Amino acid sequence: GGAWGGRLGPSLEPQRGRKGRDGSILGGMSCVIEVEGTRTEEEAIGELIGSGELNVNVREARIGEGDAVALLRCRAFDQGKDVFRSQLIKMMSGGSSKSNYLMGGRSRTEFLVAVAEVTSEAERTCAMNLVLSDLDTLLEDGWVTPVEHGIRKKRLLAEWERKAEVIIGSVDCAMHELVAPDLSLARSVYISSMAVRKGFRNRGVGTKLLRGAYHLAVESRGVKEMFLHVEEENDAAVRLYKAQGFARADMKAPPTAYMDRALRLMLQVPVNALHSCRSWDR
Question: Residue 259 and residue 262: Cα distance in Å, rounded?
Answer without folding.
Answer: 5
